[in-house]
Amino acid sequence: MEANTKKIILITTGVIAAGTVLYFVLRKKTDSSGGECDPTGNGGNCIQVDPATVANSLYDAMKKSGTDEEAILLALKNVNASMLNRVIQKFGKQSYNKFLGNQINLTPWDPLPLEPLQVWLKNELTTNEYNKLKLKYPQLT
Amino acid sequence: MSVTNKNKGLSNPAVLALASSPAGQKAVSGAIDTTLKVAKITAIVAVVGIGGYIAYRLYKNRFVSMATNSKYEKANITKDQAKAKAEALYQAMYGAGADLDIVLQTLAGLNYNGFVEVFNAFGKRSPLFGSDMTLTQWLNDQFTSAYDRTQIEFILPGIL
Questions:
Q1: What is the pLDDT of residues A71-103, one digit of tens each?
Q2: Which A-chain residues 64-93 have CB contacts (< 8 A) with chain B?
Q3: Model pTM score
Q4: CATH of the domain at A96
Q5: Is A124 part of a structural domain of the chain?
Q6: Residue A69 CB: number of other CB atoms within 10 A?
Q7: ipTM for the assembly
Q8: How far is CA A46 from the centre of its chain?
Q9: Domains, chain B, ranges and CATH?
Q10: Do B154 and A73 touch (CB under 8 A)?
Q11: Contacts with B14 (C-beta within 8 Å, 6 or more apart), sequence order
Q12: What are the tens digits of pLDDT across the range A36-66?
Protein backbone atom coordinates (compact mmCIF):
# COMPACT_ATOMS: atom_id res chain seq x y z
CA MET A 1 0.00 0.00 0.00
CA GLU A 2 2.77 2.34 1.01
CA ALA A 3 4.80 1.50 -2.11
CA ASN A 4 1.68 1.80 -4.29
CA THR A 5 0.90 5.28 -3.00
CA LYS A 6 4.47 6.34 -3.60
CA LYS A 7 4.25 5.04 -7.16
CA ILE A 8 1.02 6.92 -7.86
CA ILE A 9 2.46 10.15 -6.48
CA LEU A 10 5.59 9.73 -8.60
CA ILE A 11 3.61 9.08 -11.79
CA THR A 12 1.28 12.02 -11.16
CA THR A 13 4.21 14.35 -10.56
CA GLY A 14 5.89 13.09 -13.73
CA VAL A 15 2.77 13.63 -15.83
CA ILE A 16 2.28 17.14 -14.47
CA ALA A 17 5.94 18.03 -15.13
CA ALA A 18 5.81 16.63 -18.68
CA GLY A 19 2.54 18.46 -19.32
CA THR A 20 4.01 21.75 -18.13
CA VAL A 21 7.09 21.35 -20.32
CA LEU A 22 4.91 20.42 -23.34
CA TYR A 23 2.68 23.41 -22.71
CA PHE A 24 5.59 25.82 -22.76
CA VAL A 25 7.13 24.17 -25.83
CA LEU A 26 3.93 23.92 -27.87
CA ARG A 27 2.02 27.03 -26.85
CA LYS A 28 1.54 29.60 -29.55
CA LYS A 29 3.75 32.61 -29.08
CA THR A 30 1.99 35.93 -28.85
CA ASP A 31 3.35 39.40 -29.12
CA SER A 32 1.58 42.66 -28.51
CA SER A 33 4.56 44.97 -28.33
CA GLY A 34 5.31 47.85 -30.66
CA GLY A 35 3.39 50.94 -31.67
CA GLU A 36 -0.23 51.19 -32.68
CA CYS A 37 0.52 51.06 -36.40
CA ASP A 38 1.88 48.12 -38.35
CA PRO A 39 5.45 49.33 -39.01
CA THR A 40 5.38 48.09 -42.61
CA GLY A 41 2.50 50.45 -43.41
CA ASN A 42 0.71 47.56 -45.13
CA GLY A 43 -1.67 46.79 -42.29
CA GLY A 44 -4.74 48.91 -42.66
CA ASN A 45 -4.88 52.66 -42.80
CA CYS A 46 -2.86 53.81 -39.88
CA ILE A 47 -1.63 57.36 -40.23
CA GLN A 48 2.04 57.67 -39.37
CA VAL A 49 3.15 60.77 -41.23
CA ASP A 50 1.90 64.17 -42.21
CA PRO A 51 1.32 64.26 -45.99
CA ALA A 52 2.24 67.97 -46.15
CA THR A 53 5.65 67.32 -44.55
CA VAL A 54 6.33 64.49 -46.97
CA ALA A 55 5.29 66.61 -49.95
CA ASN A 56 7.65 69.36 -48.79
CA SER A 57 10.64 67.05 -48.34
CA LEU A 58 9.98 65.53 -51.77
CA TYR A 59 9.84 68.98 -53.30
CA ASP A 60 13.11 69.95 -51.59
CA ALA A 61 14.80 66.78 -52.80
CA MET A 62 13.77 67.36 -56.42
CA LYS A 63 13.54 71.11 -57.06
CA LYS A 64 17.17 71.65 -58.01
CA SER A 65 19.19 69.98 -60.76
CA GLY A 66 20.34 66.58 -59.66
CA THR A 67 18.29 64.26 -57.51
CA ASP A 68 18.82 63.03 -54.00
CA GLU A 69 17.35 59.54 -54.51
CA GLU A 70 18.06 58.55 -50.95
CA ALA A 71 16.18 61.58 -49.61
CA ILE A 72 13.17 60.65 -51.75
CA LEU A 73 13.15 57.08 -50.42
CA LEU A 74 13.63 58.27 -46.85
CA ALA A 75 10.80 60.78 -47.17
CA LEU A 76 8.49 58.08 -48.55
CA LYS A 77 9.59 55.42 -46.05
CA ASN A 78 6.49 55.53 -43.87
CA VAL A 79 4.10 56.46 -46.65
CA ASN A 80 1.99 53.53 -47.78
CA ALA A 81 0.03 53.26 -51.02
CA SER A 82 -3.15 54.94 -49.82
CA MET A 83 -1.15 57.59 -47.99
CA LEU A 84 0.67 58.46 -51.21
CA ASN A 85 -2.60 59.66 -52.71
CA ARG A 86 -2.83 62.28 -49.96
CA VAL A 87 0.80 63.26 -50.51
CA ILE A 88 0.06 63.67 -54.23
CA GLN A 89 -2.89 65.88 -53.28
CA LYS A 90 -0.77 68.02 -50.95
CA PHE A 91 1.99 68.33 -53.53
CA GLY A 92 -0.53 69.59 -56.04
CA LYS A 93 1.02 70.91 -59.23
CA GLN A 94 4.31 72.73 -59.29
CA SER A 95 6.04 74.41 -62.18
CA TYR A 96 8.66 72.09 -63.56
CA ASN A 97 11.26 72.12 -66.29
CA LYS A 98 11.25 68.52 -67.48
CA PHE A 99 14.40 68.89 -69.56
CA LEU A 100 16.60 70.38 -66.87
CA GLY A 101 14.99 68.61 -63.95
CA ASN A 102 14.63 71.87 -62.05
CA GLN A 103 12.48 75.01 -61.95
CA ILE A 104 14.64 77.26 -64.13
CA ASN A 105 12.65 78.87 -66.89
CA LEU A 106 14.69 79.68 -69.99
CA THR A 107 11.76 81.27 -71.79
CA PRO A 108 10.37 84.12 -69.64
CA TRP A 109 7.53 84.79 -72.05
CA ASP A 110 6.28 81.23 -71.66
CA PRO A 111 5.75 80.03 -68.05
CA LEU A 112 6.82 76.48 -67.11
CA PRO A 113 4.05 73.88 -67.14
CA LEU A 114 2.59 72.81 -63.80
CA GLU A 115 3.23 69.15 -63.14
CA PRO A 116 1.89 66.77 -60.47
CA LEU A 117 4.10 64.66 -58.18
CA GLN A 118 3.92 61.57 -60.41
CA VAL A 119 5.53 63.43 -63.32
CA TRP A 120 8.21 64.88 -61.07
CA LEU A 121 9.10 61.47 -59.67
CA LYS A 122 9.13 59.72 -63.02
CA ASN A 123 11.36 62.38 -64.50
CA GLU A 124 13.79 62.65 -61.59
CA LEU A 125 14.36 58.95 -60.99
CA THR A 126 15.93 56.35 -63.27
CA THR A 127 13.64 53.62 -64.61
CA ASN A 128 15.11 51.15 -62.11
CA GLU A 129 14.49 53.48 -59.19
CA TYR A 130 11.02 54.37 -60.39
CA ASN A 131 10.18 50.65 -60.65
CA LYS A 132 11.07 50.30 -56.98
CA LEU A 133 8.54 53.00 -56.21
CA LYS A 134 5.99 51.11 -58.27
CA LEU A 135 6.57 48.01 -56.14
CA LYS A 136 5.24 49.92 -53.19
CA TYR A 137 2.78 52.19 -54.99
CA PRO A 138 0.83 50.20 -57.62
CA GLN A 139 -1.09 53.36 -58.59
CA LEU A 140 2.01 54.87 -60.19
CA THR A 141 2.21 54.23 -63.90
CA MET B 1 71.71 4.06 4.50
CA SER B 2 73.82 5.26 1.66
CA VAL B 3 72.90 2.09 -0.37
CA THR B 4 69.12 2.62 -0.16
CA ASN B 5 69.62 6.17 -1.19
CA LYS B 6 71.44 5.14 -4.37
CA ASN B 7 69.04 2.38 -5.50
CA LYS B 8 65.54 3.73 -5.74
CA GLY B 9 62.31 2.23 -7.11
CA LEU B 10 62.11 -1.52 -7.93
CA SER B 11 65.86 -1.89 -8.11
CA ASN B 12 65.91 -1.01 -4.42
CA PRO B 13 66.10 -4.43 -2.70
CA ALA B 14 63.83 -3.27 0.10
CA VAL B 15 61.10 -2.17 -2.30
CA LEU B 16 61.46 -5.40 -4.33
CA ALA B 17 60.99 -7.44 -1.18
CA LEU B 18 57.92 -5.42 -0.26
CA ALA B 19 56.39 -5.75 -3.76
CA SER B 20 56.74 -9.54 -3.81
CA SER B 21 55.22 -10.05 -0.35
CA PRO B 22 51.41 -10.76 -0.21
CA ALA B 23 50.76 -7.47 1.53
CA GLY B 24 52.79 -5.71 -1.18
CA GLN B 25 50.74 -7.44 -3.93
CA LYS B 26 47.56 -6.19 -2.30
CA ALA B 27 48.91 -2.65 -2.22
CA VAL B 28 49.95 -2.82 -5.91
CA SER B 29 46.54 -4.14 -7.06
CA GLY B 30 44.88 -1.49 -4.91
CA ALA B 31 46.90 1.18 -6.66
CA ILE B 32 45.90 -0.23 -10.07
CA ASP B 33 42.24 -0.24 -8.99
CA THR B 34 42.49 3.38 -7.95
CA THR B 35 44.10 4.31 -11.27
CA LEU B 36 41.32 2.54 -13.19
CA LYS B 37 38.68 4.31 -11.12
CA VAL B 38 40.26 7.69 -11.78
CA ALA B 39 40.46 6.92 -15.51
CA LYS B 40 36.80 5.88 -15.54
CA ILE B 41 35.68 9.03 -13.76
CA THR B 42 37.82 11.18 -16.10
CA ALA B 43 36.28 9.46 -19.15
CA ILE B 44 32.75 9.95 -17.83
CA VAL B 45 33.40 13.61 -17.07
CA ALA B 46 34.88 14.10 -20.55
CA VAL B 47 31.92 12.42 -22.30
CA VAL B 48 29.37 14.34 -20.23
CA GLY B 49 31.27 17.59 -20.83
CA ILE B 50 31.51 17.14 -24.60
CA GLY B 51 27.88 16.00 -24.80
CA GLY B 52 26.81 18.94 -22.69
CA TYR B 53 28.77 21.36 -24.84
CA ILE B 54 27.21 19.98 -28.05
CA ALA B 55 23.76 20.18 -26.49
CA TYR B 56 24.47 23.75 -25.39
CA ARG B 57 25.64 24.72 -28.88
CA LEU B 58 22.56 23.16 -30.45
CA TYR B 59 20.35 24.96 -27.97
CA LYS B 60 22.11 28.28 -28.37
CA ASN B 61 22.02 28.10 -32.18
CA ARG B 62 18.44 26.89 -32.39
CA PHE B 63 15.95 28.81 -34.48
CA VAL B 64 13.75 31.03 -32.34
CA SER B 65 10.57 31.74 -34.24
CA MET B 66 9.01 35.18 -34.26
CA ALA B 67 5.59 35.62 -32.72
CA THR B 68 2.80 37.11 -34.74
CA ASN B 69 1.72 40.43 -33.30
CA SER B 70 -1.92 40.43 -32.26
CA LYS B 71 -2.10 44.22 -32.45
CA TYR B 72 -1.62 44.30 -36.21
CA GLU B 73 -3.66 42.82 -39.04
CA LYS B 74 -3.38 39.12 -39.82
CA ALA B 75 -0.73 38.00 -42.31
CA ASN B 76 -1.65 38.96 -45.88
CA ILE B 77 -0.04 35.81 -47.34
CA THR B 78 -0.64 32.09 -46.80
CA LYS B 79 1.91 29.71 -45.27
CA ASP B 80 2.68 28.29 -48.71
CA GLN B 81 3.30 31.74 -50.14
CA ALA B 82 5.55 32.48 -47.17
CA LYS B 83 7.52 29.32 -47.92
CA ALA B 84 7.91 30.30 -51.57
CA LYS B 85 9.03 33.79 -50.61
CA ALA B 86 11.55 32.41 -48.10
CA GLU B 87 12.96 30.18 -50.84
CA ALA B 88 13.14 33.06 -53.33
CA LEU B 89 14.93 35.26 -50.79
CA TYR B 90 17.43 32.50 -50.03
CA GLN B 91 18.14 31.96 -53.73
CA ALA B 92 18.61 35.71 -54.24
CA MET B 93 21.08 36.04 -51.38
CA TYR B 94 22.97 32.72 -51.41
CA GLY B 95 26.49 32.62 -52.79
CA ALA B 96 28.56 35.49 -54.09
CA GLY B 97 26.66 38.75 -54.50
CA ALA B 98 23.03 39.30 -53.65
CA ASP B 99 20.21 40.38 -55.95
CA LEU B 100 18.65 43.35 -54.18
CA ASP B 101 15.96 43.80 -56.86
CA ILE B 102 14.57 40.31 -56.30
CA VAL B 103 14.73 40.78 -52.52
CA LEU B 104 12.75 44.03 -52.83
CA GLN B 105 10.20 42.47 -55.17
CA THR B 106 9.73 39.56 -52.77
CA LEU B 107 9.33 41.74 -49.70
CA ALA B 108 7.10 44.39 -51.27
CA GLY B 109 3.55 44.51 -49.98
CA LEU B 110 4.02 42.28 -46.94
CA ASN B 111 2.45 43.45 -43.72
CA TYR B 112 4.16 42.87 -40.37
CA ASN B 113 2.59 39.48 -39.67
CA GLY B 114 3.20 38.50 -43.29
CA PHE B 115 6.88 39.19 -42.74
CA VAL B 116 6.76 37.11 -39.55
CA GLU B 117 5.42 34.18 -41.61
CA VAL B 118 8.25 34.55 -44.13
CA PHE B 119 10.80 34.86 -41.30
CA ASN B 120 9.51 31.66 -39.69
CA ALA B 121 9.38 29.82 -43.02
CA PHE B 122 12.98 30.92 -43.65
CA GLY B 123 14.21 29.57 -40.33
CA LYS B 124 17.98 29.41 -40.18
CA ARG B 125 19.79 28.82 -43.44
CA SER B 126 23.46 28.28 -44.08
CA PRO B 127 25.56 30.63 -46.20
CA LEU B 128 28.46 29.43 -48.35
CA PHE B 129 30.82 30.06 -45.45
CA GLY B 130 30.03 30.57 -41.80
CA SER B 131 27.20 29.63 -39.52
CA ASP B 132 23.46 29.50 -40.16
CA MET B 133 21.56 32.79 -40.11
CA THR B 134 17.96 33.92 -39.82
CA LEU B 135 16.33 36.03 -42.53
CA THR B 136 17.03 39.27 -40.65
CA GLN B 137 20.64 38.24 -40.13
CA TRP B 138 20.93 37.37 -43.82
CA LEU B 139 19.55 40.76 -44.87
CA ASN B 140 21.88 42.60 -42.52
CA ASP B 141 24.80 40.48 -43.64
CA GLN B 142 24.23 40.88 -47.38
CA PHE B 143 23.16 44.50 -47.61
CA THR B 144 25.50 46.82 -45.79
CA SER B 145 25.63 49.96 -47.93
CA ALA B 146 23.48 52.83 -46.72
CA TYR B 147 21.60 53.10 -50.02
CA ASP B 148 20.79 49.37 -50.14
CA ARG B 149 19.47 49.54 -46.61
CA THR B 150 17.43 52.66 -47.38
CA GLN B 151 15.81 50.80 -50.26
CA ILE B 152 14.88 47.84 -48.05
CA GLU B 153 13.59 50.22 -45.37
CA PHE B 154 11.57 52.04 -48.03
CA ILE B 155 9.94 48.87 -49.35
CA LEU B 156 9.32 47.34 -45.93
CA PRO B 157 9.93 49.73 -43.02
CA GLY B 158 10.82 48.39 -39.62
CA ILE B 159 12.26 44.99 -40.45
CA LEU B 160 16.04 45.55 -40.54
A1: 999 999 989 888 899 999 999 998 888 878 888
A2: 69-70, 73-74, 76-78
A3: 0.76
A4: 1.10.220
A5: yes
A6: 16
A7: 0.79
A8: 11
A9: 2-60 (no CATH), 79-155 (1.10.220.10)
A10: yes
A11: B4
A12: 888 888 877 677 789 999 999 999 999 888 8
